[in-house]
Amino acid sequence: MFCYQCEQTYRSEAGAGCAASKGLCGKDATTSDLQDLLIHAVKGIAQYAWRARQLGAPVTATERFIPNAMFTTLTNVNFTPARFVALIAEAAALRDAARAAYERAAQQAGQAIEAQSGPAAFAPAADMDGLLKQAATVGILAGQDTAGADVIGLRNLILYGLKGVCAYAYHAQVMGYDDASIYGGIEKALDFLAGEPTDVPRLLEEALALGQVNFKTMEVLDAANTGSFGTPEPTSVRVTPIAGKAILVSGHEFKDLLNILELTQDTGINVYTHGEMLPGLAYPKLKAYPHLAGNYGGAWQDQQKDFASFPGPIVMTSNCLIEPQPGYRQRIFTLGPVGWPGVRHLDGKDYSAVVQAAKALPGFKEDAPEQRITIGFARNTVLGVADKVIEGVKSGAIRHFFLIGGCDGALPGRNYYTDFAEQAPDDTVILTLGCGKYRFNKGEFGAIGGIPRLLDLGQCSDSYSAIVIASELAKAFNCGVNDLPLSLVISWFEQKAAAVLLTLLSLGVRNIRLGPTLPAFLTPNLINVLVGTFGIQTISTPEADIAASLKKAA
Amino acid sequence: MSEHQIRLTTRDGQSLNFACADGEDLISAAARADIHLPALCKGGGCGACHATCTGGDFHLGETSRDALSDDARQHGGVLLCRTYADSDLEITTPYDHGHISFRPIPQRTGTVAGLEHIGGQTVRLVVQLDDDPELGTGAEFDPGQFVELTVPESGLTRAYSLANTANWSGTLVFLIRLHPTGQFSRWLKDTANVGSRLQVRGPQGAFVLQDNGTRPRAFVAGGTGIAPMLAMLTRMAEFGEGNRCRLVFGVTRASDLFALDMIDTLRADLPALSVDIRLWESDGSQSAGTPVDGLQHWLTEALNSDIYLCGPPAMIEAGERAARDAGVPATRIFSERFLPT
Question: Domain range spanning residue B317?
Answer without folding.
Answer: 217-337
